[in-house]
Design a protein that fits this description.
- By secondary structure, this protein is an all-alpha fold.
- The protein folds into four domains: 173 residues, no CATH class; 117 residues; 133 residues, Tetracycline Repressor, domain 2; 92 residues, no CATH class.
- Helix content is 66%, strand content 0%.
- It contains 24 helices and no strands.
- Helix 3 runs antiparallel to helix 4, helix 15 packs antiparallel against helix 18 and helix 15 packs parallel to helix 19.
- The protein is rod-shaped.
- The two termini are 56 Å apart.
- The N terminus is likely disordered.
- One of its GO terms (biological process) is protein transport.
- Component of the exocyst complex.
- Belongs to the EXO70 family.
- This is Exocyst subunit Exo70 family protein.
Length: 633
C-alpha cells in the first residue's frame, strides 16, 4: 500500500463550482456570534484575513514559494484557518446588514482564494501522507477523539501541540494523528463555508484509489463466476488460502482503517461520512465477499470440504468486525453478500458430508487385505473423520441446520449426555460422527465375509476396529464421542479377539487331554501326534496373518500362550519320560514348551518360520457375524 497513486495536480485557479457572488451566502443560517459583531470588528476581521489569505494566493506577486502551508508552518496554518473562520462570521454579518457592501464582495473574493488554497492543501495532505494515513496506521490507533480537532487546533497556542498527546503512543501514531487533525480541520472549515462538495470529491477519489490498490496488492481481483468453472481445484485451493489471508487484512485493517479515518475527518456530518465510506469501500468489499459464494457453487465433493470449512470459519471469525465496519445502511449490502456466502458455504459443506457418507456406502472394492490387516478404506475414512473433528465449531452449525434424517436412537444411548450449553451444541455432531463410524463398521462387516477362513475374518474385524478405536482415542474425535463410546467398542474388540482365538486355535486347545488322567504310552503318543499336527496346521495358517499394532499383537500372543503353553508344559513334563525308550523320539515329540513360546511370539508378522510339508491347510466356512445393527451399504 506504499505505492503512490498518480493524480493530476489541481489548478491554482478557483474551481468553477465555487460560489461566485455574495448572494450565495444569503442562504447560510445566521451565526449566533454575528450578533456580537460590530462594524469595526468586522472590518478588522476582513483586513486581517486579507493579509493572511493573499499571502497564500498563488496569483499574487507576494505569493510564497512554499508549496504546502501546513507542511511549512503549522502556526501559520492555524492562523489561516482562524482567519477563514472569522471571515465567514464577517460575511454573515455583512449579509444581514448590507448585502451590497463592497466589503462583502471583497470577503467573497478572499473566501474563494482561501477555499482554493484549502482545497489544494487537502489534496496535498491526502496524496503526500499515504504512509501516515495507511489503514494499518489508522486502524492501529488506540483511540480517535470524536471532539472537534478543528476547535482543538484553533485553541492551541503551541506549535508542538502534538507532544501533548503523551508518550504512550508511537511516533508513527503521533504523525498519523497530526495529519488526521489537519484533514479534519480543513474539511470542517470548507464544509462550514459551503465548499464541502469539492473537499469530499477529492477525499473519495484519493481514498478509493488506495482501497482498490490495497485489494490488488492482496491478490483480490474482480470476481466472475465464469472464471471458476475453468479453474482446476489445485489452483482454487491456492486462491482460497490467499483469500483467507487477504480477507483478514482487508476487513480488520484496510476497511476498518478507512472507516475510522472517514468517521474522524467528517465527524461533523453523519451523512457525509456515510456517503464517503460507501463510495470508497462498497464496491471492493462486496467483490471480496463474492469469492466464497462462487467457490461454494462449484462441484460438491467431500475432498473439498476442508477448504470450504476454512472459508466459513474465516468469515465467521470476521463477522463481528464486518458488522462494526459496515453498519451504515448504505453499505449493508456488504453484510448481505457475506451472509449469502456463509449460507452457500453451509449448503455446500453439508453436501460434501453427504458425499462422504455415500462414498463409504458405495465402496465396492473386493480385494482382500493380505493377512487380515487394516483396510485402506478404514485408514482413509478415519483420517478424514479425524480431520473433520478439528472443525467441530463449523460442523456443529452445519449439523444443527441439517440434522440426520435417520433413526439414531441407539447411537445416542452411548454418546455422552450433554451437560453444558457447549456440549448440547456439539451433541448432534457427536451423533453424526458415531453414525459415520457405524457406516464404516458395517461396510467392514461386509468385506469380512469375503474371507473364506472364519478366524481370518474375525482377525480382520479386530484389526480394523482396533485401528478405529485408537484413532478416536488419540485424536479430536475422543472429545466428541466420549468414554462410553470407547468402552462399548473396546468390548466389541475383545469379542472379536476372543472369537478369533476360538476359530483359529480351538483345535490345538482340544488336542490335549481335557482332564488330568493317567495315559498309557500309546495314548500319550497319540496325544503328542494330535497336538503337533494341530499346532503345525494352526501355526502355518496363523503365522501368515498380520496384526500391525504392537499392543493388539502382543495381547493376542499373550492370550494364546496363557491358554496353550501351561497345559502343554504339564503334559510334556508328565508323559515325555514315559516315551524315553522310543526310537526317533525327536520326530514324535517335535516341540519343547520353550520352543512353543518362541513360535507363538513370532506370530502375526506375516512371515512363518516353521516349514512342514505335512501341514494340511483346510478351509473353513464363514459363520455368523457380531454386528452393531449395521446399515445396508
Amino acid at each position: 500500500m506504499a505505492k503512490k497513486a498518480k493524480f493530476a495536480f489541481f489548478s491554482s485557479s478557483s474551481p468553477k463550482s465555487l460560489p461566485s457572488s455574495p448572494s450565495s451566502f444569503t442562504s447560510f443560517p445566521a451565526s449566533p456570534l454575528s450578533q456580537n459583531f460590530t462594524q469595526s470588528s468586522m472590518e478588522e476581521a476582513v483586513e486581517r484575513a486579507e493579509a493572511v489569505i493573499r499571502k497564500w494566493d498563488p496569483n499574487t506577486p507576494s505569493f510564497t514559494k512554499i508549496v504546502s502551508l501546513f507542511n511549512h508552518s503549522r502556526k501559520e496554518a492555524k492562523e489561516f484557518i482562524i482567519c477563514v473562520r472569522d471571515l465567514r462570521k464577517a460575511m454573515h454579518f455583512l449579509v444581514s446588514q448590507d448585502s451590497q457592501s463592497p466589503k462583502l464582495a471583497l470577503a467573497q473574493t478572499l473566501m474563494q482564494i482561501a477555499m482554493t488554497r484549502l482545497e489544494k492543501e487537502f489534496f496535498q495532505i491526502l496524496s503526500s501522507n499515504r504512509d501516515k494515513l495507511d489503514p494499518e496506521s489508522v486502524s492501529g490507533q488506540s483511540s480517535i477523539s470524536s471532539n472537534s480537532e478543528f476547535e482543538d487546533i484553533m485553541q492551541s497556542d503551541d506549535e508542538d501541540e502534538i507532544k501533548k498527546a503523551g508518550e504512550s503512543i508511537t511516533q508513527v501514531e503521533k504523525a498519523s494523528a497530526v495529519v488526521m487533525s489537519d484533514l479534519k480541520a480543513i474539511a470542517e472549515s470548507m464544509i462550514s463555508c459551503g465548499y464541502g462538495k469539492e473537499c469530499i470529491k477529492i477525499y473519495k477519489r484519493i481514498r478509493k484509489s488506495i482501497v482498490d490498490e490495497g485489494m490488488s496488492l492482496l491478490g483480490i481481483e474482480p470476481y466472475k463466476g465464469s472464471r471458476f468453472h475453468r479453474t482446476d481445484w489445485v489452483t482454487l485451493e491456492h486462491m482460497i488460502k490467499n483469500w483467507i489471508r487477504a480477507a483478514k487484512i482487508g476487513v480488520a485493517t484496510l476497511f476498518r482503517g478507512e472507516k475510522l479515518l472517514c468517521d474522524h475527518v467528517f465527524s461533523a456530518s453523519n451523512s457525509t461520512r456515510e456517503s464517503c465510506f460507501y463510495e470508497i469501500a462498497y464496491e471492493a468489499a462486496t467483490n471480496l465477499f463474492k469469492f466464497p459464494e462462487f467457490v461454494a457453487k462449484e462441484k460438491k465433493s467431500h475432498e473439498r470440504i476442508f477448504s470450504l470449512m476454512d472459508l466459513q470459519a474465516a468469515i465467521s471469525d470476521l463477522w463481528q468486525e464486518i458488522e462494526m465496519t459496515f453498519h451504515f445502511g448504505s453499505v449493508a449490502g456488504v453484510k448481505s453478500q457475506a451472509l449469502s456466502s456463509l449460507q452457500k458455504l453451509k449448503v455446500s459443506i453439508h453436501s460434501a458430508l453427504v458425499d462422504f457418507e455415500s462414498t463409504i456406502h458405495k465402496d465396492s472394492t473386493k480385494a482382500l487385505t493380505p493377512g487380515g490387516g487394516v483396510h485402506k478404506l478404514t485408514r482413509s475414512t478415519m483420517s478424514f473423520i479425524s480431520s473433520l473433528s478439528k472443525h467441530s465449531r463449523v460442523l456443529s452449525e452445519i449439523i444443527a441446520d441439517h440434522p440426520l434424517p435417520r433413526n439414531t436412537g441407539s447411537l445416542e444411548s452411548y454418546i455422552r449426555t450433554p451437560v453444558t450449553e457447549d456440549e448440547e451444541r456439539n451433541h448432534a455432531l457427536s451423533v453424526h460422527f458415531a453414525w459415520l463410524i457405524l457406516v464404516l463398521l458395517c461396510k467392514l462387516d461386509t468385506k469380512a465375509e469375503h474371507y473364506k477362513d472364519v478366524s481370518l475374518s474375525y482377525l480382520f474385524l479386530a484389526n480394523n476396529l482396533h485401528f478405529i478405536i485408537e484413532t478416536v482415542r488419540s485424536t479430536h474425535p475422543r472429545d466428541l464421542l466420549g468414554e462410553d463410546w470407547l468402552t462399548k467398542h473396546s468390548d466389541k474388540l475383545n469379542a472379536y479377539a476372543a472369537n478369533y482365538e476360538i476359530a483359529a486355535w480351538s483345535n490345538v486347545y482340544m488336542s490335549l487331554p481335557e482332564e488330568p488322567t493317567d495315559l498309557s504310552p500309546e495314548e500319550a503318543k497319540t496325544y503328542f501326534r494330535r497336538f503337533h499336527t494341530a499346532f503345525e496346521e494352526a501355526y502355518m495358517k496363523q503365522s501368515s496373518r498380520v496384526v500391525s499394532d504392537a499392543k493388539l499383537r502382543d495381547g493376542l500372543k499373550v492370550s494364546i500362550a496363557k491358554k496353550l503353553v501351561p497345559e502343554y508344559r504339564e503334559f510334556y513334563r508328565k508323559y515325555l519320560p514315559m516315551l524315553g525308550q522310543e526310537r526317533n523320539i525327536e520326530m514324535l515329540v517335535r516341540f519343547k514348551p520353550d520352543n512353543l513360546e518362541n513360535y507363538i511370539s513370532d506370530l502375526f508378522h506375516g512371515t512363518p518360520i516353521l516349514a512342514s510339508s505335512s501341514v494340511s491347510l483346510s478351509s473353513s466356512s464363514s459363520s455368523s457375524w457380531m454386528s452393531l445393527g449395521c446399515v445396508s451399504g
